[in-house]
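Sample intake sheet
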Amino acid sequence: MLTNLSIQEPYLNAVYQRNNAGFASIPVMGTVAAGTDNVKASFSRIKVSDVQTLDYALPIVQTIPVDVNGNFAGTVQVPGGWYSLTVTAGDTTVLVSRVGAGEVFILFGHSFMQGGHDESHQLPATDERVITLLDDLSTRKYQFGKLTDKVGPFHDSPDAWGQFGDRLVQRLGVPVLLYGCAYGGSNILQNWQLLTGQPRTQLPPGTTDPASRQPFLPLETVMQYYVPKTGVRAILVEHGYNDRGTDTATFVDRFKTVFNYVRTTFNKPDLALVLVQEELTAVPHSLYDIPTAQGLQQLIQSYPNTWKGPDFNTEFWPSYHSSSGKDHLFGTAIDEFAIEWANSLTDSFFKQSTPYVSQGATSVFPAVLYKAPTAQLNGVDWAILLLAGLALVGLYIKRSSKLLWAFLVLALLALARLTGKV
């Protein structure tokens, strides 16, 4: 039997955020020939390394109902891991070769997060479970793939993030998706002015139009269009250096305004933030700015749902800056940044932070779940509609109560026949 089976979600290579019990809500949706009763979704584990999580029966199989027009949409609870998905309808099978239940992070901040300064040290991920968005800001195709030469939608190099992802997936045993939303040369002030409607006295490098949504646009795009589909665990942030000249209280207030906006606008009130702690003392050749570093310390200690990431006050960083004479990250500093980011996301962080899972097919795509059947009018239907029209014209001319009742009865009868009630 011809079933015309087509899969719209899950997206190939996408990673869906798991909850703190270790399960992701993976949407399965698409179309099939009208009249099909249901489709069967079957998730099978792909073993990538010796590190595996959760002992459970495989494959995970779920039946998903189909509406009268052949649309189907459902959500399958899947434990953390890397899977192939087989969707079957009758004799037809469609395979989604890779899809993950794991951890999703957004990278946000300035050039230390965007990277790209050391062209000789751009290392792709070696593990196929380290995933990024392949779309850029000008496309929205929901294409995902291994993190190699970019971190979409905005970073054009892997920098520390391939190494970071490798370390995290090998420790956790689940895939990781990274969204690159940092803008080199940006600061909190620029985001604050944009989001509060203040005069834009500063624009990030390469942006000249005050009406532009940069440098907030990459984060805004991911939060609006991608996070509802994949979910998210946390935003990894570095800001401070480029706000030098700002006093501690002002920096803290602006930072809170920006992230209160993110949490409120996108309905994620407990969304976790992980912040780089910049230098609290003067370090030669670094970009240190003590007032904003003290602001970061306050935020880590007191801003709700905030954790400390890499700490530039530890031994490696003063030594690196003084010996290299470089303020940005080159060579071994990129390696160390990746190591410290991975180490900062501790077991306690994963237990205590609040992940936001995919909204699922029924929330993200309500319009595809039902299509009104096309009306097929026969001679009786046309006669009823004609009589109803004549009654309406007579009602307009003579204002007769009998004609009013005639029109109402005929109109209700026509409506019932068109919607299949009689």
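Comment: The chain has three domains: 6-100+361-369, 101-359, 379-418. Residues 396 and 403 are 9 Å apart (CA to CA).
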